[in-house]
């Protein structure tokens, strides 16, 4: 199925788009960020509100974003501008996607730091495999504290941290520079399926041998009293982060889709797959956390400290650990390319430079910001860039990048997308192609026009003020 009406490089089939979009959605957000946020925000209340956000806010916005992209067939800001012009609205609406383009570059810069941790763990497990052979568990004979100490040790080594982060950025740039069909699509179609299989296997092991019932009750027993405005904002932010929304990524990917694809259906599949992986990720990580007596609110290191402990007890642990972190790296890579692609497509269009040059320039920017983010764990640990904003007063550079993008830029971007699609854009231009009919279509329009922007606005304001 060729993308006949896309004038440029695009997905070669519906399956390729699906895998690339799922690849964008499924990433460190599902494993690393989901477990960190669920752990620090009290578990079940966060998880249930997160699911609510995905269904009633995330999916409608995902459909709205991919529709804008497919209609515009261009870089995200240009796609919005085109639709605005055809709807006799101001071309300045393009700025909502420019905001997303900037946001995606900001996310990329701290995302690569975490991607760097993954590379480091691959290296460590590889070393262990060579040293101790395959048969036994990982890190044989070493105390658990040693294994949990791997990450703090890495944090303490500024050069290694920066080096790993930049290495991950370089790999991302390599695939983006190759282009859509031969770079991004290739990564997604081969690596995503392998990732799913391995995740499920490790989860079954974790549930069978870890503290399964404690983990399940932590994640799924609903306790209304824990649902504070702050937890709600964290959950909305996580839903957007995980679905790659509000950041021009899905508008950009939508532009490479042919008109024959049913976007409502694909949005549902993308959202379902992403949420499933997040929940399976939780069921994979938390039983081990509880069984090993780790603190659920340990913060960003949770996944990196809990899983290796489990790999120690497993037969073939170092091989499984090695394979697992390779898969996480792949999942992260299919997301990081979607964080670099929006700005690449945009700058390329703006300057007329070729793909390689654009990618290199943007990598330079992300590299500088990423270096500062990596140094937040050591040399710059006391630097508080947003000390003047109460909820970010305690955040280092890394946390500030994450907080501002997930708690302000993503919800704001999504509100603006809803207003644009719900109220400004000419419905006739996009509605006929959205794949929904009858009552479902009316319901989608209601969500995009009223429920999403209002709920998002309220959560954002109350969450930021609390
Ligand atoms: N959704 C990705 C993840 O979960 C991260 C991402 C955010 C990608 C925003 C693109 C845009 O890892």
UniProtKB/TrEMBL annotation:
Instruction: Give the stretches traversing the membrane.
Output: 16-35, 47-72, 93-123, 158-177, 189-211, 231-256, 277-296, 316-340, 352-377, 408-425, 446-465
Which InterPro entries does this UniProt record tie to the protein?
A: Na/ntran_symport, SNS_sf, YocR/YhdH-like
Topology in the lipid bilayer is annotated as: Multi-pass membrane protein
Would the keyword Transmembrane be found if you checked this record's keyword annotation? yes
Q: Does the keyword Magnesium apply?
A: no
Q: Which SUPFAM superfamilies match?
A: SNF-like
The subcellular location is: Membrane
For this UniProt record, give its keywords in alphabetical order, as a comma-separated list: Membrane, Transmembrane, Transmembrane helix, Transport
Q: Which domain of life is it from?
A: Bacteria
Stored PROSITE patterns: NA_NEUROTRAN_SYMP_3
The UniProt entry, under PANTHER family, shows: TRANSPORTER (PTHR42948)
Q: What is this protein called?
A: Sodium-dependent transporter
- Tell me what organism the protein belongs to: Altererythrobacter arenosus
